[in-house]
Backbone:
């Protein structure tokens, strides 16, 4: 009877049968966005963290970009639950796309095993100095007199959602300009093709420091350590603009609990490492951490929140 029970357990949880051999092959960390993106940068940091936690095991970053992160996410949702395929999911792939894409090929809660909330970053509204505004109040006042364009790195991104929150909070109407590549939006902002942009700290920091961009507001409860001169939106009277981009680690569904807990422990420890803190500081990123259950609860709350924002702003996949 005992032998039959052990055999049944090994069949139900094939990863556990590997014992100390896991990982017996390179681990694939799927990044569902292209190289050079915020998710790619964080994915490479996460891969290094996991490799260190597994005594130098090989962790390969696999960029499977397309369809707003859907292609890479679907790939992981359908992979074997053996601990050898992981996903760096985002606010977009796991809490926004479900409300924008009626035929999304995965369920963000059911089709993944949550591992850990990994990191987050603040979002800024930046303008070109030639626009002639020096504060959030100036921007709102100008928007009441003529149309202003607000770019983002794509439909349904944190920048797009922030633009929707800006309209709700102030009553102004701005023109959303989605780009397929945030770097192109930065180029067009610097050349005067667009008026403003919501984007991540790491991609506008150098421009703000050099004076080629002006930061009018930043999300979060406190000012950024790397851009302390930019006031929070709460400070300028717009606390509703409180979105932050975030990243989390997921595995395919039904990952055995021992592997889930081991991965969670590795990443929680890594988030405290000096190497991680230094890498995050360079990119204006903050560590998160916690249990798999914490990630699941956080994700449910984010799903509910963005469902309502998207509905009120009438955002669609074609917006």
Residues:
């Amino acid at each position: 009877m005992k032998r039959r029970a052990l055999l049944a357990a090994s069949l139900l949880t094939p990863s556990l049968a590997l014992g100390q051999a896991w990982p017996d092959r390179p681990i694939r960390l799927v990044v569902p966005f292209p190289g050079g993106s915020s998710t790619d940068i964080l994915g490479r940091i996460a891969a290094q963290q996991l490799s260190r936690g597994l005594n130098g095991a090989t962790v390969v970053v696999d960029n499977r970009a397309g369809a707003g992160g859907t292609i890479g996410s679907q790939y992981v949702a359908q992979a074997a639950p053996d601990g050898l395929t992981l996903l760096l999911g985002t606010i977009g792939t796991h809490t926004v796309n479900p409300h924008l894409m009626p035929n999304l090929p995965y369920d963000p809660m059911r089709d993944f095993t949550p591992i850990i909330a990994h990191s987050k970053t603040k979002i800024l509204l930046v303008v070109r100095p030639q626009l002639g505004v020096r504060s959030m109040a100036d921007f709102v006042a100008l928007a009441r007199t003529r149309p202003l364009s607000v770019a983002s790195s794509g439909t349904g991104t944190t920048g797009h959602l922030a633009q929707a929150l800006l309209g709700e909070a102030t009553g102004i109407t701005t023109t959303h300009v989605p780009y397929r590549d945030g770097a192109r939006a930065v180029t067009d902002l610097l050349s005067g093709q667009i008026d403003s942009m919501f984007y991540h700290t790491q991609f506008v920091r150098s421009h703000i420091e050099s004076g080629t961009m002006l930061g009018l507001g930043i999300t979060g409860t406190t000012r950024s350590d790397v851009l302390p001169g930019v006031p929070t939106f709460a400070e300028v009277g717009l606390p509703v603009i409180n979105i932050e981009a975030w990243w989390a680690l997921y595995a395919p569904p039904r990952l055995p609990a021992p592997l889930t807990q081991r991965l969670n422990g590795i990443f929680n420890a890594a988030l405290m490492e000096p190497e991680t803190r230094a890498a995050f500081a360079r990119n204006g990123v903050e560590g998160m951490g916690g249990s798999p259950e914490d990630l699941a609860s956080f994700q449910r709350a984010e799903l509910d929140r963005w469902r309502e924002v998207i509905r009120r702003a009438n955002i669609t996949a074609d917006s």
User: Anything to note?
Assistant: The CA atoms of residues 133 and 139 lie 6 Å apart.
